[in-house]
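Researcher: Next entry in the queue.
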Amino acid sequence: MKLTPVIPFEPVRTDLFPSGDPWIAQVKWDGVRMLTYYDGEEVRLVNRKRNDRTIQYPELGQADVYSSASSFILDGELIAFANGKPSFHEIMRRDSLRSERSIRQGLQSVPVTYMVFDLLYLDGEWLTHLPLSERQTKLSQIIKPQPLVQVVQNFPDGNVLFEAAKAQHLEGVVVKDLTSTYAIDGKDNRWQKRKKNGDLYAVIGGVTLRDKIVNSLLVGLYREDGVLTYIGHAGSGRFTGKDWRDLTERIQSLRTNEMPFDQLPGRDQGAIWIRPEIVVRITFLEWTPGGTMRHPTIESFAPHIQPGDCTVLQKEGDSHG
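Model: Structure for this entry, 321 residues:
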């Protein structure tokens, strides 16, 4: 049977986790949410936006390498590492590859690990009506021990795990109710998440230059009325010299005399305005009273996100995962 991609269940944000029964905690990996579909004949990988990513990750194409099931839908996070830590920048390097040659090179230069935390479908039967505890048991029974695909570990206390995750510079923690069913295209407090920093997708509306190379981004989010509101500038982060040079070339066709933001940013001196078509992922410490980000850091380009999805709802809601 051909398996139709679904929108995964999402956690809500919280500042303090519930504890005790029936709650378990898991590390929140800084990667890309990915569902893996195996209908008994072929494997397909589809992200949370239901975009197909099968060709980007050929190492997951043989289901029998990591699973004993005759068919399944796995839910998890694809991660890549930099300096021993999960890196969103690195996984996006893999996720953005398109040509066969670059994907083949990416297998060696950016190896990935699939951290699986749920099982929606098994051997021709849907499991979404079962409690998480039963889905986890079945998941652990079908995953074969090897480095490529790993089952995410449960911990008893989300608040304790969160402090440990912060100390290890990990992204955060998710807690889940072991009695919870799986709500396709749902989002409620039976799953809750907490991150060490804020993070969001923002669209670039302007840049500044140093020695004719872009060195800072002026970014914004769309309000409900469709107006782009300025949320700050960012110049530090994971961009390499090549990233800045490539961006400098890329903006040439996007330059405009019209400022795209609803109000003039404080750092507009020398700014070059561009049409808001390029999306980046940014982490930051907190929001200032004026509605801008404090200590923003550029994590990566985000070619999988549409500019129109960069909305102010991210201030209360979800971002990459």
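Model: The two ends are 29 Å apart (CA to CA).
Researcher: Noted, moving on.
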